[in-house]
Amino acid sequence: MALPIHNVELRPQGKLLIKGGKCVNEDRAFEADVYIEGGVIKEVGQNLTASSECKVIDATGKLILPGGIDTHTHMQLPFMGTFAIDDFYHGTKAAIAGGTTMIIDFVLDQRGVSPLQAYDKWRAWADEKVCCDYAFHVGITWWSEEVAKDMEVLVKEKGINSFKVFQAYKDVFMLDDGEILEVFKKTKELSAIAQVHAENGHVIDQKSQQMIDLGITGPEGHAMCRPEEVEGEATYRAIVLANQARCPLYVVHVMSKTAANFVADAKKKGHVVFGEPTAASLGTDGTSYFHSCWKEAAAHVTSPPLRPDPSTPGCLMNLLANGDLQTTSSDNCTFTTTQKALGKDDFRKIPNGVNGVEDRMSVIWEKGVQSGKMDACRFVAVTSSTAAKIFNIYPKKGHIGVGSDADLVVWDPEATRTISAKTHNHACDFNIFEGMEVHGVPVVVISGGRVVKDEEGLHLTQGSGQFVPTPPNAPYVYGRVAARDQALAPQKVDREPYTGPVVELAVKVDNVKVTEAAPALSPDIVHRAPTRSGGRNMQESSFALSGEQIDDSKPRNQSRVTNPPGGKSHGLW
C-alpha cells in the first residue's frame, strides 16, 4: 500500500538538527551535521549540538542530499480532451514520497489564449494544492505582438525565465520555424531560456495517417509514426534556429540517442544548449508498445516515444554521467487506463504521458550510481544542482550550505524497494517501472524546514508549497553569452572603395538585349526570341518545308575541305 498520509495543519518551521550523515553537494561530499531553523540552513559543521527544543534526526550511515528538483512536470494538464489525473496535490505528494522537494511545471494553454491569462489560471490551480515548492515554465503555442508583450510581463513581473515551443502537435501547439525564430529572439532579448519539444510535426501528421490507412490503430502505431530520426531532425533544427538567434536552448525530454548526440555535438561546438533526459528514457525502453496487452502498450504512450532500441537507456545514462546531458526530469503526465482508452481504436487519441515524479530519484540512482556510471556528487548535479543553476535559483535550491532553503533528503543508498502501482502515491493505476527493484531510498524528506516524510509516513498539507520565482539572466546560462555574442558578431571588412569602370546595362526590350536586326524569316519557319545575351535560341527551328534555312541570308564559305579531321577518305577505296 502507499505510504500513510497525515493531513495536518501546517507544521511550524521549527528547529531541526540532522546528525551523523555525509553531506553531498555537486562538487564534494563531506561529513557534517546540518542545523535548520525557520526553513533555512543555519549551520553546517561537525559535532553540532542541539538545544532542548530542537528535533534531532539521526542520519548515521546515510547521505544528506539537496532535495530533488524535477524540471518537467504536467500536473492536471488539460490535454487531448481530458485532464492529467495527477493534479497539483497528488503530483507533489508523489514527488515528496520520492525525495523531490520542488517541481517546475508548465503553463500550457491552447492557441489564442493569452500567456498571462494562462499563467493566472495555473497559479490558481497550483497555489491551493501544492505540497512542495514549485515554479513554472510557460509554453508559447501561438505568436503575435501581444504574445511578445506578455512574455515581457511574465519575465519582469511574474517570475518566469523560460519559454517552451513545440515543433510537434500540428494545429494544436506547433509553431513553424519562422515563429520559433521570433520566440527565440524575444527570449534572448529578455535574457530568458528557450525550451523545445523536438519532433517533426509534419512528418508525424502524415505518417500517423499512413498507419491508420494500413489498419495499424494500436499503440505500436504511435512509435512507428514517430521514428527516432524525426526527433533527431527536429532537435538539430531547433539547435540551428537557437544558435542563429544566439539564444540559449534547453531541449526537454531527450528520448533517443540521435537527439542526445546532436545536443552533445552542439555543446562541443560551443553552443549554449542543455539536454534533459527523463526517468522513463533512462529507466526503460519502447518495446512495450508492441506488447500483446493493449493496456500495457497504451500505458507507455508518451511523446516523443520511448525507443524500441534496448540500448538507448544505457547510452543516455552514459551521456548524462559524463556531462553531455545535464538535467533529469520525469515529464510526469499521468492518465488512468480508462482515460487512455479514449484511443482504444485509434492510437492518435491516446492521451500522451507517463509517470515518474515519484520514482525519478531512485531510478537514476539505480541506473547511474548503483551501476557505477556516476558518483553521488554527479547524482546531486543531475537531480537538483544543475537545474537550480540553469533556472537561476541556486544556491537557494540544490545546495547544502548556510542560507540555502532547508529542502533536504536523508538518503539510504543501501536500502532497496520494488516499484509498483500498488504502492505508489500517484493517482494513476499503472506504473511504467512496475517490478523494478531499485537501490536508494529517501527515508526522511524535509521541505521548507518541515519534516514531510519519515518512518511514520507522509505529513502533508495542501497549499503548503510556495511559488519560487525564477529570475532572468542566470549566470550559469548567460555568463558567456555576452562574450560569445561579441566574438561571433558579424564584422564589416574595411577596404578601399572601388574606383574602376562599371559596365553600363544595355537597353532592354521585354528583358531581351537587342544586338542586331534579326533576318527576315520565312513565314514557314517557327522561331523563338533571342536569348538574354542576344544569341540565337538553340531550341529554334532552322528549317522550313520549302527547304529554306534560317541562315540562308548569310554568306557561305566556298572552299573545299580536302583534309578533314581524321585524314583523307579517298585513299581507302
Shape: elongated
As a percent range, the share of strand residues is 15-25%
Counting DSSP E segments of at least 2 residues, the number of strands comes to 23
pLDDT averaged residue by residue? 92
Could you give a short account of the major beta sheet?
Answer: 8 strands, mixed
The low-confidence runs, each spanning 5 or more residues with pLDDT under 50, are none
Strand order of the largest sheet: 1-21-20-19-18-8-3-4
How would you portray this structure in words?
The protein has helices at 88-97, 115-127, 145-157, 177-189, 201-213, 220-224, 228-244, 257-268, 279-283, 294-299, 312-321, 337-340, 360-369, 376-390, 475-478, 481-488, and strands spanning 5-7, 16-19, 22-24, 29-31, 33-37, 40-45, 55-58, 63-66, 68-73, 78-79, 82-83, 100-107, 133-139, 162-166, 193-197, 249-254, 273-277, 408-418, 437-447, 450-454, 457-460, 508-509, 512-513. The chain has 573 residues and is α/β, with parallel strands linked by helices. The strands form five sheets. It has an eight-stranded mixed sheet. Strands 9-12-13-14-15-16-17 form a seven-stranded parallel sheet. α4 packs across α7 (228-244) and α7 (228-244) packs parallel to α8 (257-268). The N and C termini lie far apart (109 Å).
